[in-house]
Predict the structure of Endonuclease III.
Amino acid sequence: MSAKQNSAVGEQSSPPRSPNPSKGKKSDKPESRLAMVRRARRINRELAEVFPYAHPELDFENPFELLVATVLSAQTTDLRVNQTTPALFARYPTPEDMAAAVPEELEEIIRPTGFFRAKAKSLIGLSAALRDNYGGEVPGTLRDLVTLPGVGRKTAFVVLGNAFGVPGITVDTHFGRLVRRWKLTDQEDPEKVEAEIAAIFPKSEWTMLSHRVIFHGRRICHARKPACGACPIAHLCPSYGEGETDPEKAKKLLKYELGGQPGQRLKPPPDYPGKPAPPAPALGAAG
Ligand code: SF4
């Protein structure tokens, strides 16, 4: 763990650095664009030190598996998807297999991820399109990916960034919330957020920036109770104080490896410092 991690999210002896001193001063001049860009890039650099192991939290072994897992991840957790996909890929390892699936059988396997009828329709549809139009391979361009049923820009960027190494910004719920809290944009529409953030950071940073921001949103800067008092970038954040500022109480809000809990991946990368996720519990009331 780096010094910065220790200073913010680690042991109790080191409190977070001073929060943004401008917070709450109503007479402050508006931040210039140059200052905002510098602050944004510093947030990215500091998050890189806190989360050097930031990674996609979906388990996958090839572009097809990542595409399917990303479609399944809508409206559910990556953990739930990771607990579901081993059985799915064992039964339908290729687009050809999935395109030929009996819908009810596929629905039953993916039921724990929710919205399973719509998702099954997308998976069978996109698998048929891969089989018929792309020789059974996942295409590596945004233009082609978004022609697949159930695949929008967010899914396409996840696949491009993580299976093809094409830089992309993933504006999911965490990313949008955090960049608005940081006052890097006030846009709500994901495409507009994407465009404004893309103008702030070099292209080479886009994919890892997305992972770091999403990691931060899942672990520290939660939607309802951000752990401001345990936040390593509080000194750069104009929204410090939106959440719990008491360091001890804030520490209890930390999630996943920062909270001593398992991560979301059943097979996390070797540098992941936390525990792998548990396999699926016995099926019961999931749905
Ligand atoms: S946890 Fe609080 S201080 Fe940290 S980024 Fe979120 S709102 Fe800002």
